[in-house]
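Lab notebook, bench 4. Continuing the backlog of folding jobs that were queued last week. Each job is logged with the same field layout so the records can be merged later without manual cleanup. Today's entry covers 5-formyltetrahydrofolate cyclo-ligase, a 245-residue chain. Filled in by technician R.K.

JOB TYPE: sequence-to-structure
TARGET: 5-formyltetrahydrofolate cyclo-ligase
LENGTH: 245
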Amino acid sequence: MEREVKREIRERIWRLMEEKNVASFPRPVRGRIPNFKGSAEAARILSETQEFRNARVIKCNPDSPQAPLRELVLRSRKVLLVPTPRLRGEFFLMTEKAWESPREASRISNFSSFGERVHFRNIPRIDLVVVGSVAVSQDGGRVGKGEGYSELEYAILREQGLVDEKVPVVTTVHSIQVVDSIPLEPFDVPVDIFATEKGLFRTPSKPKPQGLLLEYLTPEKILDTPYLLEYLKETGRLNKVLRRT
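JOB STATUS: finished
OUTPUT FIELD FOLLOWS
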C-alpha cells in the first residue's frame, strides 16, 4: 500500500513539473531526481542555515538539482563526499583540488577528475547529509525516484557510525514538490530540513533507520549494486541474504 501511494506521488510530481514548466535540464524528469528552476536559490537558502555553516564534512547525492549546493559546499572549503551514481563503485572525496574549481567539480561528469575515490572503510565522519528528492512533506516525509540508493547509503554509513540520529538530513526541492503527506516505510530516511526557491522549512523530528534492514533486500538488488555487495561480503552477511531464496 505504501509503495503504491509513493509511486502515485512520484508520477504526479513528475507530470506537474513538466506541465508547469518548472523542470530543468535534463528532461524529461520522469524517472529522475528532477532538476528544477530555482535550484540555485534553494541551495543558497539552505547554505545559510547554522547546520550547513557548522558542517565540516557534507555527504551529498550526485543528482543535477543539488549541483548548486555541491558548488556552495566546495566554495565554502568544506569536505564534499559524493557516491558513485547508483552505488556502482565507491565514494568520491573532494577537498583542495575541487576547492579551486568548485563549479566544474560540482558536476557529476567531473567527480572522477576532482575527487579521490575512497573505500567505505576510509570515509570520514559526516556532519550533514544531503539527499535528492522527488517529493517531500512538511512533516519530514520524503520520496526519491524509487530505487532506494539514498536509503542504502544512509544505512551503511549509519552502521559504520559515520552518521547518527543527530546528523541532519536535508534536501532542496521546488515548492511544487511539497505535498501534504508521504507514507514512510521502516527503511525510509525522513528529512529534518528542506529548502525551496521560496524559503526554508524545518520538520518535526522522526526516527531514522539505524542500519540495513536485510529483510527488505532482494538478491537481485544486492547483485546489481556493487557497493552494497562488497559491504555485505565484508560484514559477513551476504550468504545470509542470498540463502533466503
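OBSERVATION: The CA atoms of residues 55 and 127 lie 5 Å apart.
SIGNED: R.K.
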